[in-house]
Design goal:
The structure is a single chain. Helices cover 29% and strands 24% of the residues. It is an alpha+beta fold and 594 residues long. Strand 2 and strand 3 form a beta hairpin. Helix 4 packs across helix 17.
């Protein structure tokens, strides 16, 4: 017999009754039923109930066993009495009578319990992550992650992509976040960087003639953490293709994403990839208040400015006299009660606003009537025109925010989400995807008037060089994101592969040709030697697993994550370097003023 096990803790069933078996695992829990000892023995695969009574030759040893001890047992497989069968587990028809036991590893008193789903502070969970990972939910999340990555790889190979690896130590390259720098011992005073993404390398592969590339790539960014973003490193499905248009990229990656979500989504609905809408960045902001809308929420905001222009509601009427302002309505089907409207008004105040104007419609026996402070100020004709525009009726409401859109769109988007959640309008049993397209390349600083890049500077401008010779703020890029349930899952672009267009694009943002060559020399030089049109994207692995596992925090689907302060509590990182290490690197740490 094998030294540790003849079966896993998920394999035994009625067909094994009468056999002598060997199992190894962790003591999930111990139950003493008046002289009968029952142990739920757990390994990675499942749980088997093992038991002993005073007739067992090792009963005295079994009495000493405690939670999370790692043990090996030998015993006989017995059928459980029919009334004691546990249908919730594969091994629920049998139990093992213990004949021999070996303690493989004792456990100290546990800082957190593995049995059950008790809540512990995140600091405790991360410090003792190896114990936290023993919990059933965490085991499932990590297996889901592994299986999903395996599926992605197979799907990419099946459609003609080859997997290539790109360097982990490279040159610093500003791509929108801070680099992690690595000092060079052989070149004192110089630094490598961990790649924020394989962006330049994958483009260089296209120049090298490799037609289709993908990689499950680690990326490193010194960013502030969020619930949906890891603060140091993350993984993405990185892909690039030559001789493609934007639609070609969509047609390639969308079936892969849809297939993965169908395979691992637990039966939740996934719209056919061909039906995913393409929404302009401008319309996404206008309708949803965000460039990563949750389309499970049916609420679509609308511009209602004309109904308030010159009206009796002076706040909005005066606001609309300023250039670039508008009044936006957030419909709230079934939200037509003063209690709900007051609650949303309080929400707005919590977001730093004076409040939100609102109208709700009711039937007092004489037909539909608009109510609320706004309704009284603008009169029945205007409120009826608003109701007609928004398609609302009795029992419904609408909320209003005004000003320059960029100043209030974020709050409007949050309000849309809260309204949808509170009124039960969101279809929780669905993954709703949407392509966000037509991103503006440039933006103007309101204070300085300076033009700078608003989004990816390496995207090919729509219209090429001709577009760059007109109004920069009107230039849109062949850049796109894929949103799902309120998260950005994919980001990509058709690349600017022509040096003359690239130099002009950077010149508009105030970067000279020499600076572009210095920062991105490898790529710029390569583009002088017959670069093909190419494009691609990257999909966030961690966020995909987070959605599939129905988790709200990305740390629940990462094996060994850092905390909110970018610290690894388990491994005590970051740590202070030894003096010898600093001397070898020619570095000195300058203490920061506290």
């Amino acid at each position: 017999m094998h030294a540790y096990r003849s079966h896993t803790c998920a394999e035994l069933n009625k067909s094994n009754v009468g056999e002598t078996v060997r199992l190894s695992g962790w003591v999930h829990r111990v139950r003493d039923h008046g002289g009968l000892l029952f142990i739920d023995l757990r390994d990675h695969y499942g749980v088997t109930q093992v038991m002993a009574d005073p007739d067992s030759p090792v009963f005295a040893e079994i009495e000493k066993v405690r939670s999370e001890w790692c043990i090996r047992i030998d015993g006989n497989v017995l059928a459980r009495d029919e009334s004691l069968v546990n249908p919730k587990i594969p091994t629920g028809e049998v139990e093992v009578f213990i004949r021999d036991i070996e303690v493989l590893g004792k456990s100290e008193e546990l800082p957190l319990m593995v049995f059950g789903e008790q809540e512990y502070p995140e600091e405790t969970r991360l410090r003792y992550r190896y114990l936290d990972l023993r919990r059933e939910k965490m085991q499932k999340n990590m297996v889901l992650r592994a299986n999903m990555i395996q599926s992605i790889r197979k799907r990419m190979w099946d459609i003609g992509f080859n997997e290539y690896q790109t360097p982990i130590i490279t040159a610093s390259s500003p791509e929108g976040a801070r680099d992690f720098l690595v000092p060079s011992r052989l070149h004192p005073g110089k630094f490598y960087a961990l790649p924020q993404a394989p962006q330049q390398f994958k483009q260089l592969m296209m120049v090298s003639g490799f037609d289709k590339y993908f990689q499950i790539a680690p990326c490193f960014r010194d960013e502030d953490p969020r619930a949906d973003r890891s603060p140091a490193d993350f993984y993405q499905l990185d892909m690039e293709m030559s001789f493609v248009t934007q639609q070609d990229v969509f047609d390639t990656i969308a079936p892969v994403m849809a297939g993965v979500f169908e395979e691992f989504g637990g039966g939740r609905k996934v719209d056919a990839a061909a039906d995913w809408p393409q929404i302009s960045y401008k319309d996404a902001a206008k309708w949803y208040g965000t460039d990563k809308p949750d389309l499970r929420n049916p609420i679509k905001m609308q511009d209602c400015s004309e109904h308030f222009r010159g009206s009796g509601f002076a706040i909005f009427a005066n606001l609309l006299e300023n250039e670039g302002t508008e009044i936006r309505a957030i419909p709230a089907p079934t939200g037509g009660s003063r209690k709900f409207c007051d609650r949303m008004n309080k929400f707005a105040q919590g977001e730093g606003l004076p409040g939100m104007g609102y109208i709700f419609w009711r039937d007092q026996g004489e037909g539909i009537e608009a109510a609320g402070p706004l309704a009284k100020n603008i009169g029945p004709e205007r409120t009826e025109a608003i109701r007609q525009q928004l398609g609302l009726g009795v029992g419904d409401a609408a909320f209003f925010l005004g000003g320059k859109p960029k100043a209030f769109e974020g709050v409007a988007g949050k309000a849309r989400t809260v309204i949808g959640e509170e009124l039960g309008l969101i279809d929780k049993d669905r993954f709703a995807f949407a392509w966000i397209v037509d991103f503006p390349i440039y933006e103007k600083d309101e204070e300085t008037g300076k033009i700078d890049f608003e989004h990816n500077p390496f995207s090919m401008p729509q219209g090429g060089m001709d577009a760059l010779l007109s109004d920069p703020l009107a230039v849109k890029g062949f850049q796109y994101d894929l949103a799902c349930n309120g998260y950005e899952l994919v980001s990509g672009a058709i690349r600017n592969h022509k040096p003359e267009i690239m130099f002009k694009a950077f010149e508009i943002a105030g970067y000279g040709e020499d600076e572009v060559k210095k920062r991105f020399g490898g790529m710029v030089n390569a583009f002088q030697y017959g670069a093909p049109p190419h494009g691609g994207c990257a999909a966030g692995i961690d966020r995909m697993v987070m959605l599939l596992a129905d988790e709200a925090n990305i740390r629940e689907v990462i094996m060994f994550p850092m905390n909110q302060r970018a610290e690894d509590l388990m491994m005590s990182a970051p740590s202070e370097p030894l003096s010898e290490q600093l001397m070898e690197l020619g570095l000195r740490v300058i203490p920061q003023d506290q």
